[in-house]
From TrEMBL:
Region of interest (Disordered), ranges: 35-70
Biased composition regions of type Low complexity, renumbered to the chain: 37-70
Sequence intervals crossing the membrane: none
Pfam family, one: DUF6318
Domain of life: Bacteria
Protein name: DUF6318 family protein
InterPro entries per record: DUF6318 (IPR046281)
Organism: Arthrobacter gengyunqii
DUF6318 domain residues: 70-219
Length: 224
């Protein structure tokens, strides 16, 4: 089970750096040409020879790239900034052994996203309402991001994933995941609350997932 800290009743405070996207409007230049007859009427003092046409070169405008927000991990000095939201791979949307295994890896990537941002909603969207481990995770984020506090460390590393892809009597499929987790660090403005132990040795967790409406949902998560 993921390490957690006692839950606080204060709503979660999420601090995620926002990347501003600059919209660039490119305007094309216009060009013109001289009139040979008008030049002839001006006499020999004209800079352009008779019968020739002058034109202005069109400058090709160059779009300025939008600034890219730089990801910064959490430290004792402040929370993580500009944390990218993991994107579900197409494979994780398939009802297959490979799809379930890909979904499990994606599920843990959202665990890490939650630890870095305090935002449980992406994980909640792909987890069942009765998942007790999920509820503990939500509580740990609420506690860790209480008021102006934040979390660091906590990274869950997936070492191995395996599913026999056998339908259970409840209509779900099971997948085993071997994971490790870094120590959980808790900070506030000018405060170091001290760490909670992670899981330096590999442990195995089981996810029981159901497939409905073309997507997976983690119904049950538990230690083996």
């Amino acid at each position: 089970m993921f390490r957690t800290r006692a839950c606080s009743a204060v709503p979660v405070s999420v601090r995620v750096g926002a990347a501003g996207l600059a919209a660039v409007l490119v305007l094309g230049g216009c060009s013109g040409s001289g009139n040979p007859e008008a030049e002839a009427a001006q006499g020999s003092s004209s800079a352009s020879p008779r019968g020739s046409a002058s034109s202005e070169e069109t400058a090709t405008p160059t779009a300025t790239p939008a600034p890219t927000a730089v990801y910064k991990p959490a430290t004792a000095a402040g929370p993580a900034e500009n944390v990218p939201l993991p994107v579900m791979p197409e494979l994780a949307k398939q009802e297959s052994k490979e799809g379930l295994e890909a979904f499990a890896e994606y599920w843990y990537s959202l665990i890490n996203y939650g630890y870095e941002t305090g935002d449980p909603e992406p994980l909640r969207a792909i987890s069942g309402p009765d998942c007790s481990v999920c509820k503990h995770f939500y509580s740990s984020l609420e506690s860790g991001y209480d008021d102006q506090d934040w979390m660091a460390g906590s990274v869950v590393t997936v070492r191995d994933v395996h599913s026999d892809f056998i339908l259970t009597p409840s209509g779900s499929y099971q997948v085993l995941i071997q994971i490790m987790q870094d120590d959980l660090e808790y900070y506030g403005p000018g405060i170091d609350y001290g760490p909670s132990d992670g899981t330096p040795s590999p442990i195995v967790q089981l996810i029981e997932a159901s497939y409905k409406n073309n997507c997976w949902s983690a119904v049950l998560v538990e230690n083996i």
